[in-house]
Design a protein that fits this description.
Low-confidence stretches: none
Strand content: 15-25%
Mean pLDDT: 96
Order of helices and strands: EHEHEHEHEHEHEHHEEEEHEH
Number of helices: 10
Distance between the termini: 26 Å
Strand order of the largest sheet: 3-2-1-4-5-6-12
Structural class: alpha/beta
């Protein structure tokens, strides 16, 4: 079977460069292109050189449609507005869309779901194997414990992250809510300030910390009377997300249109 032709959107960013390296390191994948916004100094640069590799003879383009035309799949860790546009273009071109972007609005989610009716989309708040195992464990533990165990999710990221809670924290919170058989929107508590009164039974708390160069730390705490269970994952390198995204692109090449997750890709 021919290699999967993969393009990287937002190729010059930190995650974009990690994605380029991951594609080049993965058997069965070949880098077909990459994009940046018009006017970016990266436009015209060799993608290999951009990622600290040997030149690849493939350059950064501002013409997303031309990049789509030469790809089987795109990797997208950009920004919500850009990702929604890419989802529509991916659907028009029949290209698999791997989405690691976070911070979507309800309207954005609806637009992506609509695009998923016409092409395969793999969307996850986190692409790493470890975090997806953590998500599966969170669902199982939440289902096993009753509301006498309070659930709190704590996440920390680098100072440059622009959305909170993180997409991973939301993914974990959704898993906890599903395990409890409740709607997250009715139980989520994202902010506590001032005289809040006692904690309500069944709430799912989310706390966001920001600072330094932390790639991503996530913990799910189940706090009962006299005991506490903590499930944690600590990301030390962005390459874990990049490798997961490439794995998703290879997996999605022959899938029917639909909105998939990394749980599907990993068979969890």
């Amino acid at each position: 079977m021919a290699d999967v032709k993969i393009a990287v959107m937002g190729a010059s960013g930190r995650m974009g460069r990690a994605l380029i390296r991951a594609v080049c390191e993965t058997e069965g994948a070949v880098l077909s292109g990459g994009t940046e916004q018009p006017g970016s100094p990266a436009v015209g640069a060799d993608l290999g050189t951009l990622a600290g590799l040997e030149p690849l003879g493939v350059v950064v383009s501002f013409d997303a449609n031309a990049v789509f035309a030469g790809a089987d799949a795109i990797l997208d860790f950009t920004a919500p507005a850009a990702t929604v546009g890419f989802a529509r273009s991916a659907a028009e071109h029949g290209v698999a869309h791997i989405i690691g972007t976070t911070g979507f609005s309800t309207e954005d989610e609806a637009a992506i779901a609509e695009a998923g009716q016409r092409t395969a989309i793999v969307k996850a708040g986190n692409m790493s194997l470890g975090v997806n195992l953590l998500t599966a464990l969170t669902l199982k533990v939440a289902a096993a414990l009753d509301v006498d165990f309070d659930i709190e999710i704590v996440e920390m990221h680098h100072r440059h992250k622009v959305d909170a809670p993180s997409g991973t924290a939301l993914m974990l919170a959704e898993a906890a809510a599903k395990g409890r058989g409740v709607a997250l929107g009715e139980k989520a508590v994202r902010v506590r300030d001032g005289h809040t009164g006692p904690r309500r039974a069944g709430d799912i708390g989310m706390q966001s910390l920001r600072g330094g160069s932390v790639v991503g730390d996530h913990s799910v705490l189940f706090a009962g009377n006299g005991e506490r269970i903590t499930l944690s994952h600590h990301a030390e390198d962005r390459s874990i997300f990049a490798r997961g995204a490439v794995k998703a692109a290879i997996w999605a090449r022959d899938k029917e249109p639909g909105l998939y997750s990394m749980i599907d890709v990993l068979g969890l």
